[in-house]
Amino acid sequence: MLHPVNRPDCIDALWLAVYIQEELLKLSLTLDLSDIRNLNSIFGTDTVSWLWKYKQKLIDPLKGFYSHTNSAEKNDILTAFRHDINYYKQYSDRTFTFYLQPKANLPSPLAAQVGGWFENFYDVITQKGFPASVSGYRCNINAQVINAETLSKNDGLYVCPVCDGTWMERTSTGILGSIDHFLPRSIYPALSVHPYNLLPICTTCNEKIKKDNDPLTYLHQRKLSETFHSYIQPARDSVQVQIGSSWAIVDKGVYPQNQLLIFPDIFDLPGRWQQDADEFDRSVRRRIRDSVDAKKDEGQDVDHNAFDRILLRLDQRLYEEWGGMGNSYPATWYFRWLCQNKKSDLLHEYTNG
Ligand SMILES: [Zn+2]
Fold first, then answer.
1. Which helix (H) or strand (E) holds 50?
2. What's this model's pTM, rounded to 2 decimal places?
3. What is the whole-number distance in angstroms between the Cα of residue 274 and the centre of ligand 1?
4. How many Å lie between the centroid of ligand 1 and the Cα of residue 263?
5. Does 2 fall in a domain?
6. 69 CA distance to ligand 1 centroid (A)?
7. Domain, as residue range, for 282
8. pLDDT tens for residues 265-312?
């Protein structure tokens, strides 16, 4: 969303889970999934052991709803799945739409069953783990591992990629974080374990603000190309925060307004930042004061020109803190607004000039 994030290798190892989903959909067109010999020859014994351990979630539901689904529908589901998992390559295609949206495209109860089966993969993998013997990765993958490896793959990023606040917390029992399906798995089940759709963000953004809201339809209709994405098209350097009676995120000539509305619509930004305006005011004024005092301590006069240079250096320092210090992004824009609109007050207050 706001900040760019590097995908950790363990998330990319989930491509194998996507492949398993696709193969199971394909096999169930012609084979009996309950015959373990059919699966052993395709997946190998390690993968089949894992599937069988969670058979009630990963095999039985598919077998169950496919027993009363006709061949044409099965083929449609497989085709739609294959189409949807390539979504991450289509960010520049303004005509792209998803095919496998069970709630919209399939009759219930089939819709709920199809969606539920895909979602089970996410639950099993994040809660019980995706074994190294299946993924080929160096360790078992679960939610903790995804969070921890995202942190270590993003040296220098210490803030939530969405809201610029506290991201993940290290506790004695591990790392507390929340993995967001940017496109909700309840609406886009083909993306339930898709490496491009899983992004660790803060629990407030994920569980209290965004919840299950769909970035493509909530409050305003948007194309996939009109969303921001921390792995593909982050917003940070292309937008700015406009300070006023109602704070807004505006573009720098790149994005249409409809696209920018994703911030207030889905994540309640920048309204959440505006609530902290007093805190930003205190913090940037304190930093101006400290810089002026430091100059005076060096015995230097702080005249109009020296004050300008102090503000310029502070602007640069705030920018360098983006991603490294909580709320430095909105604080920077607040600081810039202050410099533009209250410059003479600041000059008078800090330099007696
Ligand atoms: Zn957040």
1. helix 45-53
2. 0.93
3. 15
4. 11
5. no
6. 41
7. 277-351
8. 999 999 999 999 999 999 999 999 999 999 999 999 899 999 999 999
